[in-house]
Specification:
The complex is a heterodimer of chains A (about 170) and B (about 350). By secondary structure, chain A is mostly helical. Helix content of chain A is about 70%, strand content about 0%. Chain B is globular, with a radius of gyration of 22 Å. Classes of the chains: A mainly alpha (about 170), B mainly alpha (about 350).
Chain lengths: ~170, ~350
């Protein structure tokens, strides 16, 4: 077991443990903090695969911006166990368990015959994730999906501005 | 072989990390002293002059005082998060130093030691990532205080940092178009061979500078701790060394962001008008590295002074002014800068033909 394998198992344990704690912790603020830990562990995985750009973008976008907004909202709403209405609908819980297990089943069935389980990740040797290669690929092979997604972002941005815009009251 | 680690390499990096951390702490310590002296000079006072010669031991006395004060953790607050807040503030403040090139290299014991802890190829993005994490220390601490004024301060900090990060990022993109690299070391190398980036990106630098002031929560953008509106802002409930950590993290942030500005726009450790190859021949690698580091620290010290100068000159913005400046002035301006830079770079690659 080399140092990469040790790091891999450590990061995997951290990711899964963090993800479980997101669901398990009572306080939503703690959930968000565990989610941030999970994102960091995933970024660690990216670094192991030598995809440093993806790793840092994951941290900037998810841990640095989106989670801050989540934290922002949760802190403003001051959610906690006391203000939460008691969960009486037990059947929702069972429905969740059944739906989750079905999703797991579908995923296992889909991935069983795919090549992803045979082809292991290139640890630290691949250079696809480095920024120059990524940029070239994005602007040549994948330029169409890239542009489409940027238009999607633009429309989402404009939509957000339109929704949040106050109604102008015209003085008579 | 279980673990193949180059022990000398680890030791070398460890020593470098200790030196960088220690010296940024020391510089931040004397930045607090410098701030009080600068304030005193601007207000026609003497400033601290009792502890030690010229008051030089004043930061030590301040630190001792903070250590001996009573530690108060408010009731009904999450104790773990309350302690985590200042720790995170310090941690994120110290982390950025890892990718800043403090000098070229030194030659000891037959090894070339680079004076940069990690030359990652995404250097500037790493800085950006750590800066965007810096807000957690403030937000978590302010929420855990269980105090409305603290929470208001924390929310202000978060919205301010997120808003100014955008303009900062776009200003950086223009710089990256000009240099064509993300590694801070390569960027400094380009500037040593050619012109400093400030001459290529003056508008970008101005935007970056304003955003850095906002990211460091410095006046005129120190709304998270506006004392006449929010008592003490996010650190209202903090006392003793935990308060000290928050205040100290601000000074480390100032030093580190000065260093980032120096490496991005002012040639890093470059000594202007000096041919380094000749200098290396005449006095050797190690002395040149020392001169380089001095040059770097001198430039960084100038920016530290600029931070203080602005603090004691310009009054605090109002909150809506802050948001208007960020969203309606800086972001369009940085977009404009980016487009113009892109057009110029394209023209240059086309040999100035349309």
């Amino acid at each position: 077991m080399g140092i990469a394998a040790i790091l891999f198992w450590f990061l995997s344990a951290l990711t899964i443990g963090g993800a479980i704690m997101v669901v398990a912790s009572k306080n939503p603020v703690y959930s968000i903090l565990y989610l941030i830990i999970t994102f960091f562990a995933i970024s660690g995985h990216y670094v192991l695969m030598n995809a440093q750009f993806l790793a840092i973008v994951n941290i900037i976008v998810y841990a640095g911006a989106i989670m801050v907004l989540f934290l922002f909202v949760v802190m403003l709403m001051n959610l906690n166990a006391e203000s939460e209405p008691p969960q009486k609908k037990r059947y929702l819980f069972f429905a969740g368990v059944v739906a989750g297990c079905s999703l797991m089943l579908v995923l296992v069935a889909a991935l069983k015959s795919s090549s992803s389980q045979i082809q292991l990740v290139q640890m630290g040797s691949g250079d696809v994730g480095l920024i120059s290669n990524l940029g070239k690929v994005l602007f040549t092979d994948y330029v169409f999906p890239f542009e489409i997604s940027s238009v999607l972002f633009l429309s989402a941005m404009i939509g957000a501005v339109v929704i949040s815009k106050k109604e102008v009251v015209h003085p008579e | 072989m279980l673990l193949t680690i180059d022990l000398a390499f680890v030791l070398e990096k460890l020593i470098l990390i200790v030196i960088v951390v220690m010296s940024s702490l020391l510089i931040a310590m004397y930045a607090t002293f410098g701030e009080r002296k600068v304030a005193a000079i601007m207000q026609d006072r003497r400033g601290p002059n009792r502890a030690g010669p010229f008051g030089l031991l004043q930061p030590v006395a301040d630190g001792m005082k903070l250590f001996f004060k009573e530690e108060i953790i408010p009731n009904f607050s999450s104790k773990f998060l309350f302690i985590l807040g200042p720790c995170l503030a310090m941690l994120t403040a110290m982390m950025t130093g890892a990718v800043i090139p403090w000098g070229d290299k030194v030659h000891f014991f037959g090894r070339d030691i680079s004076l940069q802890i990690a030359d990652v190829n995404i250097g500037i993005l790493y800085v950006f990532g750590v800066v965007s994490l810096g807000v957690y220390g403030i937000m978590i601490g302010s929420w855990a205080s269980n105090n409305k004024f603290s929470l208001m301060g924390g929310l202000r900090a978060a919205s301010q940092i997120i808003s100014y990060e955008l303009a900062m990022g776009i200003a950086l993109i223009a710089l990256l178009m000009v240099t064509g690299t993300l590694s801070l070391k390569t960027m400094v190398g380009f500037q040593m061979d050619g012109y400093w980036n400030i001459f290529k990106q003056p508008l970008g630098f101005l935007i970056f500078l304003i955003c850095v002031f906002a990211e460091c929560n410095r006046t005129p953008f120190d709304l998270p701790e506006a004392e006449n509106e929010l008592i003490g802002g996010y650190h209202t409930e903090y006392s003793s060394m935990k308060l000290g950590f928050y205040l100290f993290a601000e000074y480390i942030n100032m030093f580190i962001s000065s260093s980032v500005m120096v490496s991005l726009f002012f040639g890093g450790y470059d000594i202007p008008f000096v041919n380094d190859a000749h200098l290396v021949e005449s006095i050797g690698v190690n002395w040149v590295a020392l001169l380089h580091t001095f040059s770097f620290l001198f430039k960084a010290a100038f920016f530290l002074f600029l931070f203080m100068w602005v603090r004691w000159t310009i009054p605090r913005f109002r909150y809506d002014q802050l948001m208007n400046l960020g969203w309606k002035v800086l972001i369009p301006l940085s977009l404009f800068n980016m487009l113009v830079t892109g057009a110029l770079v394209l023209l240059q690659q086309n040999n100035w033909h349309f």
